[in-house]
């Protein structure tokens, strides 16, 4: 009997041990499975987040859709080498952030501008891709047309329509001894350039959805054809904006000193109103003939915006900041109206800046009804109201 009792105790002990071990094993499996699910979920979220960041860094242009798409011509390096005379120095017509720009003639006789990428690394590659993907899908008479590109091995080139009068910057600030075409811009021409450039930004902001933010709008990126009609160029830093009212996209702060909106510089929050600020700076350049930043000037005059703002709303003071090259050949009424627009565009608070559609509406009467030397008159007020253009049903969709 004792032997049987001892055997049963051992049997119960063994059974308990088996049950305990099985429970521990099952618990271990559950813990391991839970940890596996946690790690998998974490990795999945990280990959998804990385894809979103990559998408945003590239501007999100993969989903770009517009009503009228036209294909681009793909050139060989040999073709463009021949068109530009072997990229000879005598054919250099400019130097942008992307690289040297050459004058060229294609085999069919078309004059073109060929931009040869000299920026090595990922940033240069991304700017090339953004420009090709964006300009292959957008069409406006106020944007510089991209005709084609070359991507042979290590060569990256962009081929544009040729703009005979180069950039606005070189006309506002001609360099003595320079071979580039330059001339004094009269008041009427400056008004027309201001309107054309405004229409270019209006198209990007109001006629595509979500809007395209240029992010590097400046006088050197406004090109002029033989009749001094202006087109916006250089879209290497462009990004798609938020499609939500009042929304923004967060990104690295890039652009050119003196043109970058203060809220974007401080927070990295980018909106279409960031471009509006840059446009306001260009208006001030057209009014004053001064560069945005020049620390060689007298104290208080180094930064164009802060120097000009106190003068813009006063009829007598605004005359003091006008470009001497204009030699007084302008209408004071028009000057005050343009100064009022510039004042609104460079407001420190983005919400107080107008839409580009409103800027266009305010400039159209000045260009259409221009009087070379009309009498001084009262200035009509400039209101930053929502433009009906932003409600138009025929928008292109990006």
TrEMBL record:
Keywords associated with the record: ATP-binding, Kinase, Membrane, Nucleotide-binding, Serine/threonine-protein kinase, Transferase, Transmembrane, Transmembrane helix
InterPro entries according to UniProt: Kinase-like_dom_sf (IPR011009), Prot_kinase_dom (IPR000719), Protein_kinase_ATP_BS (IPR017441), Ser-Thr/Tyr_kinase_cat_dom (IPR001245), Ser/Thr_kinase_AS (IPR008271)
Biased composition (Polar residues): 375-390
Positions of transmembrane segments: 14-38
Residues annotated for ATP binding in this entry: 122
Domain of life of the source: Eukaryota
UniProt feature coiled coil, ranges: none
Family, per entry: Belongs to the protein kinase superfamily.
Name the UniProt record assigns to this protein: Protein kinase domain-containing protein
GO MF: ATP binding; protein kinase activity; protein serine/threonine kinase activity
Disordered, as annotated region: 371-398
Residue ranges of domain Protein kinase in the record: 87-367
Entry keyword Flavoprotein: no
